[in-house]
Specification:
Layout (H helix, E strand, L loop, with lengths): L17 E4 L2 E9 L2 E8 L4 E5 L4 E15 L2 E6 L3 E4 L5 E16 L7
Antiparallel strand pairs: 1-2, 2-3, 3-8, 4-8, 5-6, 5-7, 5-8
Pfam family, one: Cupin_2
Organism: Bosea lupini
Protein name: Cupin domain-containing protein
Length: about 110
């Protein structure tokens, strides 16, 4: 993946899926020191367990239906919706209808590499 740090273009078909949790997989789409974009696919019923990190996160619901919980507040989001997670807030998702999220992190999540 380190070759991609110096590349301007990434093609979805060239990037392998990585399993993360049961029913969840991700692709690191693009990244640099201050920003990372990640595609995350969820099977119906899959859970992105509650967690926190020092990165700010903005996420776009590309497809599907998700119950998103941030700092104890839950909202049902559908394709076209977005959510923002400030640093260090506990957050997680439950997939209601199979779909994908496009997550952006600042700074990049070095532990994903």
């Amino acid at each position: 993946m380190s070759d991609r740090l110096n590349s301007f273009f990434q093609h979805d078909t060239d990037i392998a899926w990585e399993p993360t949790e049961p029913g969840v997989r991700r692709k690191i789409m693009a990244y640099g020191p201050d920003l990372m974009v990640v595609r995350v696919a969820f099977e119906q019923g899959a859970i992105g367990k509650a967690h926190q990190h020092p990165h700010r996160q903005a996420s776009y619901v590309e497809s599907g239906v998700f119950d998103v919980t941030i700092d104890g507040k839950t909202s049902r989001l559908v394709a076209g919706d977005t959510f923002f997670v400030p640093e260090n807030l506990v957050h997680g998702v439950v997939n209601v209808e199979a779909g994908q999220l496009i997550d952006s992190f600042t700074p990049m999540r070095t532990e994903f590499l």
